[in-house]
Automatic annotation (TrEMBL):
Swiss-Prot/TrEMBL keywords: Membrane, Transmembrane, Transmembrane helix
Protein name per UniProt: Uncharacterized protein
Transmembrane segments: 25-43
Species assigned in the record: Microbulbifer epialgicus
Length: 87
């Protein structure tokens, strides 16, 4: 799977799970000491509206981000522990 395909799947999961948004959806992934963190908000960070995921969505997102990290490493595009997406 290519990076564009992985990002498109992440975007589709977010739009399906947070359907009532009028602005951008931000998602921040972080991997720290074996812990995987996900934060999602809409609008500006200081005036954000948080959302709760449906069951299974966080693990799907985590798997996609891990796939993206593997893609980046295999294609010598860097090794990152924090990723921020805006959909």
């Amino acid at each position: 799977m290519k990076d564009k395909d992985i990002c498109a799947e992440i975007r589709q999961l977010l739009f399906n799970d947070v359907p009532n948004t009028t602005g951008d959806i931000h998602i921040l992934f972080g991997k720290f000491a074996g812990t995987f963190l996900i934060s999602v908000w809409t609008g500006r960070f200081r005036k954000r509206r948080s959302s709760t995921f449906s069951p299974g969505i966080p693990s799907k997102l985590a798997g996609l981000v891990k796939d993206l990290k593997v893609f980046y490493l295999e294609n010598e595009m860097g090794d990152c522990n924090v990723m921020h997406y805006v959909c």
